[in-house]
Amino acid sequence: MNHQPTLFVCTACGGKPPIDGGQRQGERLLAQLQTAHQDAASADFVIQGVKCMGVCDRPCAIAFVAAGKFSYLFGDLPSGIADLSTTAATVLECFGQYCQHSDGLIPYRERPELLRDTIIAKIPS
Questions:
Q1: How far, in whole angstroms, is CA 24 from its chain's centroid?
Q2: Burial zone of 1 (CB within 10 Å; 0-12 exposed, 13-18 middle, 19+ buried)
Q3: How far apart are CA 20 and CA 86, in angstroms?
Q4: Using one digit for the tens of pLDDT, what is the confidence trace for 4-37?
Q5: Does pTM surpass 0.85?
Q6: What confidence score (pLDDT) does residue 23 get?
Q7: Among 93, 98, 32, 89, which residue's Cα sits nearest to residue 65?
Q8: DSSP 3-72
Q9: What is the pLDDT of residues 22-81, one digit of tens each?
Q10: DSSP letter string over 69-97?
Q11: 22, 31, 65, 74: which has the highest count of C-beta atoms within 10 A?
């Protein structure tokens, strides 16, 4: 079992793949997050795609999970092509905060604005 903090990204978010063979919104967000993570050369957490998080009415969805910490589920993240780099940077900033808190709790006022009102659930460890 992996004990590193994990950032899960729903790859099914955004519905059916475009007819032109393009990616779903969740797949694009995952790719952008992975690229930004590699560029930062940080190995202290994992980014992993999952097929569905069950919040299809609130795409794009991500989750912060780590052993012994609260878990967070976020949805409604901007995932249009023009928004991807900003969304990815903001998610990684907040996930960094999550990793630094021993219990995973990120006070509302400390979260980036994008992730203040997009929270779906905060689940105890």
A1: 15
A2: exposed
A3: 25
A4: 899 999 999 877 766 566 788 899 999 999 998 8
A5: yes
A6: 83
A7: 98
A8: -S-EEEEESSTTSSPPTTS---HHHHHHHHHHHHHHHHT--SSEEEEES--S-TTS-S-EEEE-TTS-EE
A9: 788 899 999 999 998 876 655 588 999 999 999 988 989 999 999 999 999 999 999 888
A10: S-EEEE-----STTTHHHHHHHHHHHHHH
A11: 74
- In the chain, the amino acid numbered 51 is K
Supply the pLDDT for residue 69: 96
Q: How far apart are CA 68 and CA 36, in angstroms?
A: 26
99: CB partners within 8 A, 6+ apart: 5, 44, 45, 66
Q: Is 102 exposed, middle or buried (0-12, 13-18, 19+ CB in 10 A)?
A: exposed
The first and second tokens of residue 73, run together, are: 């589920």
